[in-house]
Fold each of these.
Amino acid sequence: MTGCSRLPAVPARLRRMTSPEQDLPALEARVIALVAQIPPGRVVTYGQLATLAGQPGAARQVGYVMNGLLEGLDLPWQRVINAQGKVSTDKLGFGDIQRGLLAAEGVVFDAAGRCDLGQYQWWPDDAPGQERLL
């Protein structure tokens, strides 16, 4: 897939994080399908992905899905950010990589590390409501 980036090595303990209160396989499949559609230079938030995947309010579970992606899966993972317009991968050790990949696609971050969701946030054409900043 063009414009996608291979995931950096993620520690084994983080590869398959799951939430005990949520059965992730169906959500995981929907999230992966949505992430595959995000065009270069655009971003979506974890909460937005949860809503689009039919699980409003499940941003944390989307985070578990994203953390659990297998290495080598050819998805534009870097295009998923938090509702503040920031990357959430700094504590995993590859925030600079994510920001760099997004910057290479034309996403601009301010001095506080935020991108303008009003400019860069992506919605599929058939998304209900298409409300910003989920």
Amino acid sequence: MGKERFWFGAALLFLPLLGLWLALPNPAETIEGGPLDGQITIHGRPMAGGWIVLYPEDNSCAAVTAPLNEQGEFHVSERQIWTPTPETRFLITLCPAPGSKASGKEISADASEIRRYMEPRTSNLAVRLGAQPATIHIHL
């Protein structure tokens, strides 16, 4: 009876770990993406503070987040972007920090010009990223 319990417990522990290991992308099959730089402006003024979040449309890799500086600029290093294909389409969302400003004018998260870009299902912003460096400018 003791041996059966041991093997049953070992199987309960091993099978979920095996499933997780099989679900993760193989590092040998992933491609390191190029760095991504860009700037976000609202009505011609930089969106100072907050974050840009990039979600892979096909859920093939992890989402990427980068902070926005006072000029609305962001940088994502090549080490942050790993894709299983030579080119992956990312949906872009924007998350203003509380009290974020666009060149002196406070941005409210309730403002209609930014609210639609805060969720992947309502944002129409997207970019294709691959192994090459990329630069994007988002003007809202």
Amino acid sequence: MVLVDSSAWIHFLRPDGDVEVRQRVDAALRAGLACWCAPVRLELWNGAGGDREVRTLKEFERVLPDLAITAEVWDLAYQLARSSRRTGASVPATDLLIMACAHHHGADLIHGDAHLDHIVDTASGEERPVARGGERRRPRRP
């Protein structure tokens, strides 16, 4: 299972998006491993401007599995927020939820978001949450 962050979807959907990120998203889709969660959907719907984007998101809703944002995901997001804040950084709540969701569900995460890299750099524990630039590594608890 591969949770695709909105930053990676944006690269994938734009003709001039980052080639490596686009290839990782394409591979996850072709393998039937790509999924999303409510914060990713919200970010994408918030940016959908035209009919083509709306059609694409409706198709994604039809075919992509949705990872639930459970009470455990929220608890982990709080922990990740504290880890990030201890370094003086304030990370967007949606990024904290997305990272926590990937960890809770045992999903890899594809992204192109510096905030997610920061969470990786500041979280503590035995496994790195997600590798820089969206390399695939399992999330860890702080």
Amino acid sequence: MLIIEVTKIVLVLTKKQYDMIFEHLIIGGIYFMLPIYIMWIIVIFLGIKFLIKFNVENTDIKKLTKTNSLIIFLGSFTFLFGLLGQILGIYNALQAVQQAGDISPALIAGGLRVSLLAPLYGFFLFLISFITWFIFKNLLKQQIN
């Protein structure tokens, strides 16, 4: 069991979940999945940093607004980066199919499943960052008023 502790938040990953994350990293292509995983870590870090600084008095609202904007930007960028990975992966797969000639449909379906990993992780990060951005934006509005 892997335990990651960030301030008071504790994230517990079982062996099965850790193996799944590592498997997706390798199968989905390390050149696209690793930056997406790094973006997840950065967005989580920025969210925690925002909450810590928000609860401190005499907080600079402009810095918090920039941090909030960075959260939504990274989420959007990660989704687009995942789509780029899928497009390049499908392009290379279709090129291999063309060279090989006759390919089984099961092999093509497996390749399409793998090509969806990067956009899927990017899309979930986009959703999380959008929800986080919306909540933080409303917190900032309440602080200003």
